[in-house]
Specification:
Blueprint lengths: L6 H9 L1 H19 L3 H4 L12 H15 L8 H14 L6 H16 L5 H31 L8 E10 L4 E8 L13 E6 L7 E6 L9 E6 L5 H9 L5 E4 L16 E6 L3 H13 L6 E7 L8 H10 L3 E7 L14 E2 L4 H7 L6 E5 L2 H13 L7 E4 L11
Parallel strand pairs: 7-8, 7-11, 8-9, 9-10, 11-12
Antiparallel strand pairs: 1-2, 1-6, 2-5, 3-4, 3-6
Helix pairs in contact: 1-7, 2-4, 2-6, 5-7, 6-7, 9-10
């Protein structure tokens, strides 16, 4: 267990906030440059998120600044810490990886800040880093233990065979995965993801997270993947993965999931490929015959890009009170309202507030960041408490050791 931070350390770390605001991104780039000299550490990271224009350096800069700013009130960072721990477990990050990151962080602070990074400052940041690292290591150890001890669970990378590939739309395909060893698989929490280790010719090992798009069944998982422009892993899956392909997979992880028991209405709100965890949640609610109203609301461009529409409609006929509303932003010329889609255009603030039970529902939201920000803002302004608004980010999380 981490020892409490000393008052001197708290004061010194907080004193570096102005320097981090001015030079944080430079520190992060220098930190990554140092870490990536070690191939074992480099291969833990999603390289597509790095570089001068990458999203991860900016996210990490913000995370370090948030940590320094809240060093005396770490309770405010608890949700972020859980998100980091879950991500680390998916990536199979272990205690022995942490010293490399700490060394790179302190070296980067010294290199960028120069004489301003006194020995006192470096010692304070070293103490602060290991305080957080030990919290993460302890939480990750508990998650690894839970995974190993759960029926069908495992640690490390397990071989799965692609059982079948289903073309869901012009840009999304589903891959049904079964374990090569023929043993059961652990029940995931609807909304969680799997982490994959891809070995793509001509590239270092590639790790990616994909949400599970099926309810738990003890036998198999399904992921539904959008082909991203210039997406190395998604392009390989779409072009190369077929029935019989073997993939290395880590156990389900993630802090975003459907509550196990709910007595309130549930609204599943998604945009684009953000439907993947929503379909898993909808399947789970139908499978347990949930006795609450369920609103499934999805927005996409048109019929060509609308994945799993028939499957969702079939599920709706089996649920007690499932209502589906599909928005097509730009319907194709031959699409018929009421048959191919329900509403034209985007999901507006007015429609969402008027057509969902804002006074009592739990909202689960997933989609691109602009969609997500807008939906969360709309619901918050409508008076929905923050503990009833659950959302999943696309892209890198704000974390201190990130993929």
């Amino acid at each position: 267990m981490s020892q409490p931070l000393s008052d001197q350390t708290i004061a010194l770390v907080k004193a570096t906030v102005p320097a981090l605001e001015a030079h944080g991104l430079d520190i992060v780039h220098e930190m990554y440059s140092r870490m990536f000299q070690n191939p074992e550490i480099r291969d833990l990271f999603n390289q597509s998120h790095h570089g001068d224009a990458g999203s991860q350096p900016r996210a990490l800069t913000g995370a370090i600044l948030a940590y320094a700013s809240n060093i005396e009130n770490l309770g405010a960072l608890a949700p972020a810490v859980e998100r980091i721990a879950q991500k680390h477990v998916g990536l199979q990050i272990l205690p022995e990886h942490y010293p490399y990151v700490g060394e790179a962080l302190l070296g980067a602070i010294k290199a960028v800040l120069g004489d301003a990074a006194t020995e006192e400052i470096l010692e304070a940041w070293g103490e602060a880093y290991w305080f957080l690292a030990n919290i993460l290591i302890a939480r990750e150890d508990r998650i690894y233990t839970e995974q190993k001890e759960t029926t069908g669970g495992w640690n490390g990378w397990r071989d799965f065979r692609v059982d079948k590939v289903i073309r869901e739309s012009s840009v999304i395909s589903s891959f049904v995965l079964r374990p090569v060893d023929g043993e059961p698989v652990m029940d995931h929490k609807p909304g969680q993801y799997l982490t994959f280790w891809f070995e793509i010719p001509g590239h270092p090992p590639v790790k990616r997270n994909y949400s599970i798009s099926s309810a738990p069944n003890g036998e198999a998982y399904r992921i539904s993947v959008k082909r991203e422009t210039h997406g190395l892993a998604s392009g390989w899956l779409h072009d190369e993965a077929k029935a019989g392909t073997i993939l290395k997979v880590a156990a389900p992880a993630g802090e975003y999931f459907l509550a196990e028991h709910t007595e309130r209405p549930v609204v599943l709100l998604s945009g684009g490929v953000g439907l993947t965890p929503m379909v898993a949640m909808l399947e789970a609610l139908v499978n347990v015959d949930a006795d609450v109203p369920v609103h499934y609301i999805h927005g996409t461009h048109n019929c060509d890009t609308h994945a799993m529409r028939n499957h969702v409609r079939d599920l709706a006929t089996k649920g007690r009170a499932v209502q589906v509303t599909d928005f097509h932003q730009t319907p194709l010329g031959d699409e018929v309202k009421g048959l191919d889609y329900d509403e034209a255009g985007i999901i507006t603030d007015e429609w969402l507030v008027a057509n969902t039970p804002v006074a009592e529902a739990d909202y689960y939201i997933c989609g691109p960041r602009p969609f997500l920000r807008h939906a969360v803002s709309t619901l918050s302004l409508a008076g929905v408490p923050s503990d009833r608004i659950h959302y999943e980010f696309f892209g890198p999380a704000d974390e201190l050791l990130a993929a």
